[in-house]
Design brief:
This protein has 351 residues and is of the alpha+beta class. It has 8 helices and 13 strands. The chain has a domain of 134 residues: Muramoyl-pentapeptide Carboxypeptidase, domain 2. The N terminus is likely disordered.
């Protein structure tokens, strides 16, 4: 599509192209993350919408890359849903920054029976080595449920600079009788020694469900086989605040790929990180994809050709601004790559 050149959405200063590394997973595997398990799959290709697993009964094993050694879930949380602490890819840029953000969200969003409330959340934050006042900013992560367990599905950069960062922590939260809760939290950090400080939390605020939805929005919500939406992204589409240009592109890409989205509208920085330029995400004109056909973008085992072909397909679907781990040739700002986008593919629209 023709559009006036614009600065890449989400670009951070001094970016460099990076590959990444988490294990290849299926949509079923992401759902199984709530149990701390991933279904092993093989044979995923970019040419088939529904790649066939190499074995009819894939083995189930603990995820070697989406979990991290750490405290076991409390017995009460295990009774809800077995969760596993998230861990970054060895290829992540400054993985300790992501870990610092994720561990706080895990601490705030998981509690045993009777551990609900802000006061208890403050104590959990302090015990984990964070400013207890951050619990006051946790928003919907602190429900009135008597117990809860959080599973972080993905952690991607909303921006990474030399002295500050935004980590978008995408999570599902299990409470008694509800396995569909969760949110995305924009965790802000600043560089410090011996470890980065978490300075603020900005939970997603998708808004109420719309009274009526466009055909594109209904189609995206219905295509659960090819389009996986985490809780905040699902609520974004349900709110009616996502532009049809982005929704139609999701549907177009889903004809050839199975895609797992991380962020659509809410839970993303309002401005392109480190700048005063409005991001396309809060305007409902962008979405981020972290897994393509069961392969995580950051995984070093993911074929580069798959990611590059997906980026080109996103441009062909109407995106003026496609970011990812590889810099592709294109007119104007159609393609870009930097540190922020080493772990996902950004697909943006200018209308």
């Amino acid at each position: 599509m023709s559009a006036a050149p614009r600065a890449p959405d989400g670009c951070a200063e001094g970016g460099r192209a990076q590959t990444g590394g988490v294990t290849s997973i299926s949509r079923r595997g992401v759902l199984a993350l709530g149990a701390g398990l991933v279904a092993g799959v093989a044979g995923c290709t970019s040419s088939s919408r529904h790649p066939t697993a190499a074995a009819s009964s894939p083995s189930v094993r603990p995820s070697p890359t989406l979990t991290h050694p750490g405290p076991s879930p409390s017995p009460s949380a295990s009774a809800l849903h077995v969760t596993a602490p998230w861990r970054p890819s060895p290829n992540d840029i400054q993985p300790q920054v992501k870990l610092r953000a994720v561990r706080l969200i895990e601490a705030l969003g998981t509690w045993p029976v009777g551990g609900q409330g802000v006061a208890a959340a403050r104590r959990r934050a302090a015990a984990a080595g964070y400013d207890p006042a951050l619990a006051d900013q946790a928003g919907g992560l602190l429900t009135a449920a008597p117990e809860a367990a959080v599973q972080v599905l993905a952690a991607q950069y909303g921006g990474i600079l030399s002295d500050s960062a935004s980590v978008l922590v995408v999570c599902r939260q299990y409470t008694p009788g509800n396995d569909s809760g969760g949110t995305t939290v924009d965790v802000r950090l600043s560089a410090a020694q011996p470890q980065w400080d978490v300075t603020a939390l900005h939970p997603a605020a998708p808004g109420a469900p719309a009274a009526s939805l466009s055909g594109a929005a209904r189609a995206v919500l219905a295509d659960v086989e090819a389009i996986t939406l985490p809780p905040a992204a699902h609520a974004d589409v349900l709110s009616g605040n996502v532009h049809d240009s982005a929704l139609n592109a999701m549907l177009t890409l889903a004809r050839s790929h199975r895609i797992m989205l991380s962020v659509v509208r809410s839970g993303h920085p309002i401005y392109v990180f480190g700048t005063n330029r409005p991001s396309d995400h809060p305007q409902g004109r962008a979405f981020d994809v972290w897994t393509i056909d069961g392969h995580a973008v950051i995984d070093p085992a993911t074929p580069r050709a798959l990611v590059e072909s997906f980026m080109r397909a996103a441009a062909a679907a109407g995106s003026y601004n496609v970011g990812g781990p590889y810099l592709l040739p294109g007119a104007g700002n159609q393609f870009f790559s930097d540190d922020t986008h080493h772990d996902h593919v950004h697909v943006g629209f200018d209308f």
